[in-house]
Amino acid sequence: MITEERLNTFINSFYSGNTPFLNELEEYAKETNVPIIRPGMQSFIKVLLALKKPARILEVGSAIGFSALLMAQYNPVRCTITTIENYEKRIPIARENFKKAGMDDRITLIEGDAADVLKELDGRYDLIFMDAAKGQYINFLPDVLRLLDDDGVLLSDNVLQDGNVMESRFAVVRRDRTIHSRMREYLYELTHNPELITDIIPVGDGITLSVKVSLKEAK
Ligand code: SAH
Ligand code: MG
Question: How many angstroms separate the CA atoms of 121 and 106, rounded?
Answer without folding.
Answer: 17
